[in-house]
Amino acid sequence: MVEILKALNPLLLILLGSLISILGGIFQFRVSDNSRKITLLSSKLERAYELCQLIYDGHKREVSNAQIFLPYNSSIYIDKRCHPGVEMSELKMLIRAYIPELKKHLEKLDSGHKPLKKSFTKIDKAVIEGRFNSTPSLTLAQVDLDSNNWSNHLALLSKGSFELKKALEDRMSKLV
């Protein structure tokens, strides 16, 4: 029996070395895979944070654009129109795909975005259809604009953006 163990000793050492090597490879793969996932999620969180600000800034610019140009030259209003819809779509996709636990914060942000989008879509349609001309007599009241409503929607958007960014920061701190 002892002789058999002596004869198998080199073979057992080779098998033990192979097993240790395989286990080390599995461990290294898991560590690097986890690191890759953290890096990916971190980049998605950073992008979502950036999009929150771009959406707010975009809507603020839209309101200013409408207030300045609609009463005097609706064609300039259309030329300067730059709705942050692409950014909102990307943000929705990021939240839904990578951080679904933040959907409630996204909904708060969207509660300011949707009414602004609806208002500007209505105005765009009227301007494009030619129902408004570029005369100086065009007033904000004639275009059925309500700057107070826009301010309220911007406030909702700002609050939603702040809360979502705070939640993104909290989620990011858990990664580190």
What does this structure look like?
It is a single chain. With 176 residues, the protein is mainly α. It has 5 helices and no strands. It has helices spanning 2-69, 74-80, 85-98, 103-128, 147-175. Helix 1 runs antiparallel to helix 5 and helix 4 packs antiparallel against helix 5. The mean pLDDT is 84.
SSE diagram, text form:
Elements: H1 2-69, H2 74-80, H3 85-98, H4 103-128, H5 147-175
Helix pairs in contact: 1-2, 1-3, 1-4, 1-5, 3-4, 4-5
Brief digest:
By secondary structure, this protein is an all-alpha fold. It has helices at residues 2-69, 74-80, 85-98, 103-128, 147-175. α1 (2-69) packs antiparallel against α5 (147-175), α3 runs antiparallel to α4 and α4 (103-128) packs antiparallel against α5 (147-175).
Percentage of β-strand residues? under 5%
User: Roughly how much helix do the residues carry, as a percent range?
Assistant: over 70%
Largest sheet: none
Radius of gyration: 29 Å
Taken from the alpha-carbon principal axes, the silhouette is rod-shaped
- Report how far the terminal alpha carbons are from each other: 55 Å
Please state the structural category: mainly alpha
Q: Can you give the mean pLDDT?
A: 84
Low-confidence stretches: none
- Helices, by number, come to 5
Order of helices and strands: HHHHH
Q: Give me the count of strands.
A: 0
Question: Which features does this protein show?
Answer:
176 residues, single chain, rod-shaped, mainly alpha
